[in-house]
């Protein structure tokens, strides 16, 4: 991990292999490389989200998450190495509890929609789930620490909660609330809640 990039186009990967942090070379379709790639994509997606107008506290949290994801990727790049700290997972748990406490209970499933920032948070959520699946797949074949899998699982939950927070922040004027899936159950509940004069007629 002490080496720093001085040359980008090394051509060493032209044969379909790539180097891990411990110097060994593996095929680019290796499960470890797939997991590292998904974590990198997740970090990049959070970078796109950070380009949007965000509440200051959410921005500060996501910057920390980016650094922790870089540590997570570094840990995956060296079999048997530990880099992601226990405090990282504890920080996600604390953020989840903090932001979720201010949100109303969900009446139904919600769509990944609303403000652009909320939609981007949902994309990050789905990439986090894919990265988690990739780490689980790797774990079935090689020893991997628990922290990367747990961190990605918790981060996906946090991105869901932050999407709801960002819709309410409404910084682009296009949100304000969750975008609910139009289920028959929710429609019936809403109809039952209407006064008789306001209820839709067939």
UniProtKB/TrEMBL annotation:
Record bears the keyword Coiled coil: no
Region (Disordered) residue spans: 1-25
SUPFAM superfamilies linked: Cobalamin adenosyltransferase-like
Record's compositionally biased regions (Polar residues): 1-10
Record-linked Pfam families: Cob_adeno_trans
Residues annotated as transmembrane: none
Keywords annotated in UniProt: ATP-binding, Cobalamin biosynthesis, Nucleotide-binding, Transferase
Gene3D superfamilies per record: Cobalamin adenosyltransferase-like
Catalyses which reaction(s): 2 cob(II)alamin + AH2 + 2 ATP = 2 adenosylcob(III)alamin + 2 triphosphate + A + 2 H(+)
Record domain Cobalamin adenosyltransferase-like: where: 8-165
Family affiliation: Belongs to the Cob(I)alamin adenosyltransferase family.
Name of this protein: Cobalamin adenosyltransferase
